[in-house]
Amino acid sequence: MTGTTDAPRSPGRPRSTRAAEAIIEATLDLLAEGSTIEAISIEAIAARAGVGKATIYRRWPGKGALLHDALRTLKGAPPQPVGRSVREDLILLVGAVGHNLDPRAAKIMPCLVPEAQRSPEHYALYQNIIEPRRAAMREVLRRGIRAGELRADLDVEVTMAMLTGPMLIQRVMNWNPDLDEAGLPEKVVDGLLAGIRAR
Amino acid sequence: MTGTTDAPRSPGRPRSTRAAEAIIEATLDLLAEGSTIEAISIEAIAARAGVGKATIYRRWPGKGALLHDALRTLKGAPPQPVGRSVREDLILLVGAVGHNLDPRAAKIMPCLVPEAQRSPEHYALYQNIIEPRRAAMREVLRRGIRAGELRADLDVEVTMAMLTGPMLIQRVMNWNPDLDEAGLPEKVVDGLLAGIRAR
């Protein structure tokens, strides 16, 4: 509904765009401060954004749709593989796992994981953030198989978990304090490409 | 202080052992029902276990020490590697990652992860569960290097993250609904041993 408000335009971006941004920001601020996706309310978001509830409902049918947009905004789009080599593309994508430009993500994402398991709606919100990232990685692996760079019998979904898992547990769970994170994406990709068995 | 209470013994296990078990069980029940490690109180645990607070303080100096024991009880000891082959031992240990005999663990563990990041005390509780599992895996990998089965230049900490990560994100985070978990430990170990590059 951008640009359809009857209020006079202020200079710069349309008023409704600014309101939408304020609503998204208020949602992310509240989540980062500890509101759960279960407990957060349209009332609280409206109050924090300095808008009326009606302004939120003009743009989003309900809390789920607003959270969907807010969480996608938080994580941004996955990086675009360059397409020169499977190794380089995987390092790019693996390096982005659990790496957040927005500092609020470090507070919101770990708490989302247990919440995601509580209902199908919450799980869908969580998958809506992850699936674009998985899709980008899946495409690189399939390209590698087609080009003969990767084993023809590769289990793509298992391989994605092997590339993503080490980064996620280390960056999101802070799994091992003795693990040096410098160069971890390269080490993970090269370790998996070559294998660890002595030859 | 097992056996030092002045009450007459009932048949079977000593009274203080039964009290300690009830206290551990009450702690785990409360955590599984959604109490955070921040919010859970000695008062609530005593009430749930049907004991006085003094009974708890006779055995544990405070909440941190009680949570330490309760969470270790919840997870149990890691499985013992057989020592026949690195591959078999790794499959055993990888298969145990995120696998919980106690159904309460599935409710408690994911919520522990974000809480663990909030203070050094909480992080220590979390590491106290994980470190015995990492130690067992580290020993198998070091044995494999010494025996010449694994690459001499292997980064052991990175390799542990690569073995643990896929299991943890799938079992604890329910990361990818399209990933078939059947045989996942074998697939992870074999994929990492051999590598994914075409030959």
UniProtKB/TrEMBL annotation, chains A, B:
The keyword Transcription regulation applies. PANTHER family: HTH-TYPE TRANSCRIPTIONAL REGULATOR RUTR, TETR-FAMILY TRANSCRIPTIONAL REGULATOR. This is TetR family transcriptional regulator. Residues 17-78 form the HTH tetR-type domain. GO terms for molecular function: DNA-binding transcription factor activity; transcription cis-regulatory region binding. InterPro entries: Homeodomain-like_sf, HTH-type_TetR-like_transc_reg, HTH_TetR, Tet_transcr_reg_TetR-rel_C_sf, TetR_C. Residues 41-60 bind DNA. Keywords: DNA-binding, Transcription, Transcription regulation. Coiled coil: none annotated. It comes from Micromonospora sonchi.
